Each structure stands twice: as C-alpha cells, then as structure tokens.
Amino acid sequence: MIRSIWLVARREYLGYVSALGFWLGLLLTPIGLAVGVLVPGMIMKAQPARYYTVIDSQTDVQDALKWQFESWQSSDTLIALRQALSSSSPAEKRQIISKYEKAYAEGASPAEALKAANLPFPLSPSPIRFHEIPLKDKSIEHVETLLSSGQTLDGPEGKQTLFAAIIVNRDQVGKISSVDYISPDIVNSELRQATTGALKYISRFELFTEVGVTATQIREADADIPSLFVRKPGANQINDNQSSEVTLTDRAPFVAATIIAISLWLLIFSVVNFLLTGTIEERSNKIFDSLLTSVSVTDLLAGKLLGVLMLSATLLGSWMLMALWAGLNVDQALSPAAWEFARAALDPKLIIPALLGFLAGYLMYGAIFLAMGALCDTIQEAQALATPLILMLTTPLFIVIMALQNPSSGFVFMMSWVPFLTPFLMILRAPLDPPLLEITGHIIVMLIATTLALWCSVRVYRAGAVNGTGMKDIKNFLKKSTAKKAS
C-alpha cells in the first residue's frame, strides 16, 4: 500500500516539476510579491511635486494651505521619528518626541523642531509635495488655458506645469462664499483634502477671533497639549530599558498573520487546481483504466494528494531560500518596518498554525477538487461545476482582508469555527494568544472536516474512476428524480 502510494506520488511530482509552468510559477510568484510590496512605497517616493495656484483677493487661504501642508509634513516626520527611535530607551524616546512636538507647536518648522529635539542621529523631515506658483495674469480664462494646455511655468525648481487652481469667491464684505477647485486630474484628492482642511482652519480661526482669542494664544495652547503614548496593560516603566508601550514590534505580528493567511489561501488554490486539471486529463484520456490495474482507488487518491503536497513543499522551500538570500543581500534596502514584519512572521506561534492550516486546508480542498475532476470529462464541465464552489471559497479571502482591522471581533471568532474558514482565520487570531481550548477546538474542527472531505472524496472518486459516473449521469438522475416527484 505504502509503495503504491509512493509510486503514484512520485509520478505526479515528477510530472508537475518537469513542466515549464511550474518553473514559471516558481520564479514569477516571488517577483510578483516583491513588486506588490516594494512598488507602492517606490511610487510614493517617486511621486513628483505638484504645483497649484490660488486666485484670491486676500492671502488667508494661501496661508491656511501652507499650514495644512506643513501639518501633514509634521505628521509624516513624527511617524519617521518614532520608527527611528524604536531601539531607543523609553525615557529617551519620550523626551525626544516631547521636545519635537513642543517646538513644532510653538511655531517651529518640522526641520527646526527636529533640531530642537537634539536627535542622536541625522533625520530629515518628510518632503512637502505641493507648492504654490503665483500668477501675474489671474483671470479665470488664462488659468483654465494653462490647465488644459499643459503649458509650463517658472517654478521653484525650473519649468513646471500647473496641477490645479483654487478660485476663492468672496461676498461684498470679503467673506468666503465658495471655492472652485479646477484640475485636469480627477483622481488625485490630496490637494482637494488640503483645501477642505484649510477652509475649516479659517472658519475656526475666525470664530476664535470673534471671541477675542489670538493666533499666539492658539499656538500656546497647542504647545501645552501633552504627548500621547500608547501602552499595553502593565507597569509604566519609562525609566527602564523596557516598557509596555505599543511599538512597531507589537503591531507587526498582526500584519504578518494577515500576509501569511492570504499567502496560504493563494498557495492552496494554486496547487489544488493541479489536482483538478490532472484528474480531468487522466479521465478523458482513459488513463484511469491503466492506473487502476496497478493500484487501488484509495492509493491512487492518496498518492495524488501526496505528490502535489510534495510539490507545495518544493515551492515553499524554494521561496524561503529566495527570501533568505534576499534578506542577506538587500539588508540596507529594506526599512526597519519590513524587518519587523519578517521577524514576526517567523514566530512559532504563527508558523505552527500556518503549517497546520495549510495541511488541513490543502487536504480538505484537494479532496473536493479531486472528486470534481473524477466526475468531469472536459475542462468546460469542470469550470461549470467549480464556478459556484470557487465563488464560495473566495469568502475566506474577503474575511481575512476585513479581519485585519479587528481580528478580535466576535464575528471573526464565530467564522473561525466554520471548517472552510478555520485554516485561515486561526492564523489571524494567533497573535491574540487565544486560550488552549480555542486552539484545540480549531484543530479538532479541521480534523473532522478534513476526514469527512476525504471520506466523501474516496466514494465520489471511485464512482467516477471505476464506474465511469460523470456529470451527464448525475444530470439524468436528477431529471428522473424530479419527474417521479412531479408524477
């Protein structure tokens, strides 16, 4: 029996490994993942500066926009500062961040606030991506011509095209009545959001002025706002080298768990498709008859599952070696955040659920797809049968993505007990350190569901492989059953 299973598994494994598609998938998948991870950051860094103009009889909107952009710059700089201080002691971290926030609130620019914080390492403020270009001809017709024609203007960095124009309309007493935002780019919304924030700032400032509060007093009030530090439950040991503050290291396991769960889903449904197409090919070419003269139906099914499982292990092992090589050679190219996520992904409390989830999910879904393949003579029949099943099986992917924001929700907890979803959602809940009873329950659910799927698959597989039962026979049986009930 074991020898028969091994011979079938080896046949399946060598058949897939020798195919060109296997090697393309082996190489293109990590390249695609790397592009998906690195390209968004590269796009943000490579995003060009955009230039706008404000058409207004006063300067309050211009000043408010500059304040809005500087506020965004300060927020981005503060995030970079917190990340750069991740290895510093809690006391030093709090002292530097408090100095930065106080200096900025007192009127310093982000660059000046960084100097005031006395950093032990060099750090530049995040760049501002929007700059104003004043126009001599402020007529609406001229502005719209510039926007539609793409004509270049003299900007702070040479010739620049105009990205947008902000037209401020005022009433007879000089109060803003409406604002027109004109731009050929209808997708990018950052400047529109900045304009809305600037108008809110002006409205609040006018209200403060009416009650006698000056701009200096507002700045002084901002400077007195205490710094916010997020902590886990526990002692606040700010004077020691360890603290209960929430850091990137604490958040990384949740992001890593989501990445593992999505990768697991993609891997499972990539390899089980091999089982479906391979079984259909063998059935349509009458290869089943030859195979079943040497091995039993159970051995054939077990050998196919083992062969593709070996194929999955080859893919995973190759990708892990590629990741290790990349980590040893691009150390300086990756941000500290990427390394935190990588370390979190190697945590045994994520690796063990991932391996268990993959094994259970693969056997469960693999058995289902094998059974479908044994009933179909053509790929068209399989597609018609598999379409509603695949739509149902995409549910785990959507739930995983939604659960990223709240893996501890009651809905995710309840869905984790649904056998089709358990292999993926148990990984998402692993960083929460679930109780032993929940872990044991998830394992039992997967064992029962996998055993039931394999039991049903053997019987369906035998009906299709040995008895030649196909989709036409099932349709005829359903028609006869419906006709008897109708009569």
Automatic annotation (TrEMBL):
Keywords: Membrane, Transmembrane, Transmembrane helix. Residues 237-457 form the ABC-2 type transporter transmembrane domain. It is a multi-pass membrane protein. It comes from the Bacteria. The lineage of its organism: Bacteria, Pseudomonadati, Pseudomonadota, Alphaproteobacteria, Hyphomonadales. Its main location: membrane. The keyword Transmembrane helix applies. Pfam families: ABC2_membrane_3. It comes from Hirschia litorea. It is found in: Membrane. Signal peptide: none annotated. This is ABC transporter permease. The chain crosses the membrane at residues 20-43, 254-276, 305-330, 350-372, 384-404, 442-461.
